[in-house]
Amino acid sequence: MRTINDIVIFCFEKAKYHVQNINSYQLAYFDDENKHDYWIIANEFDLDKQEGLLEEVKGIVNDASFLKNISILFVKHQGQVNLSEADDEIIEIENDPYFFKKYVLSYTDDSVNGLLDLLNRERVGKTMSDILMEDDNFQQMKDENEFGTYHLLYSLGHKLPFLTMSVTPKDFDAIANFNINNDNDKQLLKEIDSITDDNNEVLMKSLIEKEN
What we know:
By secondary structure, the protein is an alpha/beta fold. It is 45% helix and 14% strand.
């Protein structure tokens, strides 16, 4: 693996998705008529052009349930990511209700290089879920003062729900009632939410619960 897209595709393929290159983006899906989940992986995304993108992908996919099961992962390069401020562009994209479920994965060159080093050391015999759930990796993220290797790692866990399915507690009532009392951990979740959507807090809460 050499790029952020290599990392993302690795995550999908390990989860048994087939990834197909199409023009300037990739389409990830299952080669199984009983599994209906589709992802567009793109390095560029324009809300004003999303309807045209949807029509293009519709011409490729032969599945009546496609429109209900399509998401887009916008892999967004940034010179830096400010953890103390919400990104208005990301909020606008992810809150847009039309055509796709939308997820924005921000990254910097340094964070990708660091994550590549980490994965090349740790991925032998391990799933991404295993790496995400390691206490030391979570502590490293808590210790990072800026967006780096470990913030990118846990951003991936936030953006791609299938990465954390194996660590999701079965007792959803317990999740709903879970209270984070440590002020530092509350601030950590706030920072993560500033660069990610809030659809998948289970991973973060599970990790914090393990520590306390």
